[in-house]
Amino acid sequence: MQILSILAFVLIVITAMAILVFRDWRIVSAALLLQYLGAFAMVTQSWPVEIAVIKLIVGWMATAAISLTYFRRENVSLFAETPSSFIFRSLIGLLTILVVFISAPRLQANVFPELDLLVLQSGLMLIGLSLMQLGTTQDPFLTVVGLLSVLSGFEVIYAGLELSSLLTGLLAIVNLGLSLVGVYFIIKVGDNVSLSTKEDEEEDQ
Amino acid sequence: MTLSTPILWVLLPLVVAVLSLAAFNRKVFSILLTSLTSFFLAGLAFGFPESMALSLGPLSLSFTESLGILGREITLKYELLPFISLIYFVNGLWALGSGIKGVSRIFRPTSLVVTALLTAALGVQPFLYAALLIETAILVSIPMLSPLGKAPHPGILRYLTLQTLAMPFILLAGWLLSGVEALPPESPLIIQSALILGLGIALWLALFPFHSWVPMVFESSNPLVTSFLQFMIPTVVALFSLNFLNRYTFLRESEGLYQILQTIGVITIALGGSWAAVQKNLKRVFGFATLVETGFSLLAIGLANQGGLVWLLTLMPARALSYWLWAFILARIEERNGKTDLDHIDGFARRFPILSIGLLLAQLSVAGMPLLAEFPTKLTLLTAALESNPILGVWGFIGTLGLFLFTLRLLVHLVKPLPEGEPAQWGISENRSELIPVLVMVGVLIIIGLFPKGLLENILQTLMAFSQLR
Q1: B75: part of which helix (H) or strand (E)?
Q2: How far apart are alpha carbons B346 and B333 in whole angstroms?
Q3: Is residue B408 assigned to a domain?
Q4: Complex ipTM, two decimals?
Q5: Using one digit for the tens of pLDDT, what is the confidence trace for A13-29?
């Protein structure tokens, strides 16, 4: 069990770093998919597998929704990257990892004594690295991925504190809702949509 | 037949919202369906009998206050109904005005969903789960703000990000607070819990330094939509926050907490007012004015021991009506003028005097001008703040002056002579669909300003829901 937790922790750190550092939607989507697997493994430390699996399914559904919408877009231009921005994000990612390693034991001792240190570190890694992600992008896709990762990190920690069916259900709704907002942002005008304001304006005229 | 209050004020509007969404192509039908449903629910909540029983001819309906969902409950107490009446009335009013060009068709169904979710948030037990319902309401609100197919404005991304980040803080704070009740007041865990809670609420209320999305979203979206959200979310969050004071004795009895709330409230008023005074865009000013209003709400909660909660509640209806008038006129100006920058409305009052007067009065009402709706409550609040802490009181007055100052700047631009070649004489160019709502609402604002007690007292019953705060 401990080996599984360590593997899940490593997976979480690598995927969260990949999401922060890379800007290619394919890498980000793959990393998010794997990240949910790691988060699921961590949640199973606190919850029964049959409830924890909800988080995995919801996470994968959310990832599929935004990634496939991105995939449907034609001529997706890759983000213009300079080496300095790549290095900058890598460095702040490493710094965040360092801060989490230093602060997690104290936080566990003072605030979350009943929580496993590895679970706490996993959650904090996800939250910390995703906050860095949110602070370094204005792209809708990356923003939504960042928010999904923050929530994922929070859920890893909160699962160790409380188990409630309503809470699980509502968190699933929030995650799926967030991914739908991501889809809404990504959809292009040419995608034969019917609720646009453009139509409203035409009708008004 | 036995029903429950959440069926009426949560599930029914959700069903109607689905119908309204299905009929989104039929504008008039959609407006009527949404606004009439909202007004019906508002009226029902307003006049609901205390016996919780209704007789409709041969049909007799009795109501319980709770509805069980997945092992938890949504409880809409009788005492909460005046507040629920207010938010459904606001929904109806905004839906009625949503026929204006530029307001997305999806506004009407989504506004009903947002109101239903926020109503559920007020009643869900344990009350911390409200954070998830409020977050869902925020997600639902995105399509109102950002047209489909267009890249979202950075302000909307910030709105989504900051509001979403509030939810984990609130849930975590709730868990921490439940564990610290038995601890001595000097325990560092109590301060940590209060800090996390404060951070979550600050994110929700868009307090400094989390406020940057407010003017950005106001500038990029239709004022009717943004004002609806900036009324609904802070108002419901303010009321929801009272749950914490009501539930946790150590928070309620902490004198320091009230002083902090007063200070943060006055800082928000002063910053919002100062920013409003120097803006060049009418929509951004509206955004900053909503921040000032949030500051007043915090100040009122901070003055709870001097009767601040009464002022918090009496401000709400007056604020809603002022916001509506302001938003309606701004949307009309945008429709007529294209732009809402100060430089682009030079001489506007010469062609549209009624809209211009309405805009000035709406701003002055929010600023707390004598004879207008918000004046009696704001005067009482600022006087109490001055008595409690003169420095805070003075800064509160300074912040309030910001909107007055901007209104003067606006007046100068509105009456400026038109450029050469355009007719210089004054004339009324507004049509009936603009004149009637503006004149009616201006009249209502003046009547509330003159007779505040009779018209605003009903909502005070809401305080009975917070048994420890009366």
Answers
A1: strand B72-75
A2: 12
A3: yes
A4: 0.90
A5: 999 999 999 988 899 99
